[in-house]
Amino acid sequence: MDFKGRMKKLLKGKLRYFTNTLIVISLIFLVRYLLANNLLRMPDTINWYWFAASLLMLAVGYGFDCFSWLQILRNNSIHISMREAIESVGIAVFGKYIPGKVWVITGMSGRVSQSTGAPIIQVSLLATLLQVLNLALGAFIGLIGLTPYLKMSLVAVFIIITIVVIVLFFGYKDKIRNAGFVQRYKFTRKWLPPFIRSISPGLILSLVLIWISWSISFYLLAKSLGYPLPFEGGFVLPLGSSAGTLLLLAPGGLGVREGALGLLLAGHLTSPQEIVTLSAFSRLWFLVGEIMIFLAAGLLITLKMKRTKLNNTDTLVRG
What we know:
0% strand; mainly alpha; 76% helix; 13 helices
């Protein structure tokens, strides 16, 4: 094995060690918070059929989450399969529970960089851009949940204007990329074209579908508890989640998201007990979804390792 091959093998081993350490540390942070705030308790009454339906929609949302990661990479000529997207998203999902958002980005980017050979800095920048877009669209979709506070007509007008702006952006995408003000300055010439190239209709649609799926899932969660949350009330989840993500020092939005959900739910539910229970239980509920995508990623990685080992054994036997 030449020097380059040895270095590649060494880096692969280091990355695996880093990933495993990341998972352990993030789980310690998560469990510590859940125990300290008594969030592992199940509600006294729950309809398991509606709860299962909410978990199914939660899983659908994670499917779109993985697809959006695949989309933004392919828009930049970094080609991965859907299986690899699930692996990189799922294996890093608990990294967000370590204070600072860099760990989930590092976890996602590391696997992609390893499998494709793409520069880790480039992949990390794309992962960061994806997080920003996801946050912005989450806040945008979450406006539907503000109907008790804002007139529906006002929300509708804002949504229509935003859609028109997005359509115009895609219509003039190439002209914006080659515009004089972009080419005039070194900073815009270097960073704006990759940003524009990364955004595609498929990416925007997949990000929107993430939040729609999770909003429906949150509505079904409330239904499983027997709470009279209206359908549009489910859309407080994107807004509450975005608020939690904005606070960088709150790992995974812990505490902040629950508080924001409580405030937003007050416009849809009248019982303080229902508001507190739903916002608190949503953390455990969402954790179940994270465990599902994590286990799916772990299963795919395990099957791939077994297949690689079997192929290597067959090669040795034939040799």
